[in-house]
From TrEMBL:
<dbReference type="Pfam" id="PF03788">
    <property type="entry name" value="LrgA"/>
</dbReference>
<feature type="transmembrane region" description="Helical">
    <location>
        <begin position="84"/>
        <end position="108"/>
    </location>
</feature>
<keyword id="KW-1133">Transmembrane helix</keyword>
<feature type="transmembrane region" description="Helical">
    <location>
        <begin position="58"/>
        <end position="78"/>
    </location>
</feature>
<dbReference type="InterPro" id="IPR005538">
    <property type="entry name" value="LrgA/CidA"/>
</dbReference>
<keyword id="KW-0472">Membrane</keyword>
<protein>
    <submittedName>
        <fullName>LrgA family protein</fullName>
    </submittedName>
</protein>
<dbReference type="GO" id="GO:0005886">
    <property type="term" value="C:plasma membrane"/>
</dbReference>
<feature type="transmembrane region" description="Helical">
    <location>
        <begin position="29"/>
        <end position="46"/>
    </location>
</feature>
<keyword id="KW-0812">Transmembrane</keyword>
<keyword id="KW-1003">Cell membrane</keyword>
Amino acid sequence: MVEWFTVLVVFQLAGEVLSAATKLPVPGPVCGMVLLFLALVIYRRVPDGLAKTAEGLLTNLSLLFVPAGAGVMLHFGVLEHDLLPIGASLILSTLLTIAVTAALMAWLSRKASGNAPEPKPAAPEPEARS
């Protein structure tokens, strides 16, 4: 497990180096995840040790948010000044994400089932009476 944790940290470090060297506006850990994904695609399977290590990290994922939460509380005075815009953007972005996800899911479901709704034919015009 330690060996695979080291592999994950090495990919994160590689992502940090890539992000800094190319001045990409993407965080290093995200670049590292992309590199890890590409390596797994090339390897064509997830090694058992890596799967067990990832499962262990995901099981305890909530513990990894404790330092971030402590940092937010430490700097709450800074956040307090912009609490309304931050709160509004969180709520609006969440609602927008839910709406886009629902629309995309409905569209993909129709497309996958081949039952895309047909346009309704125009209603016949009523005959003119004289």
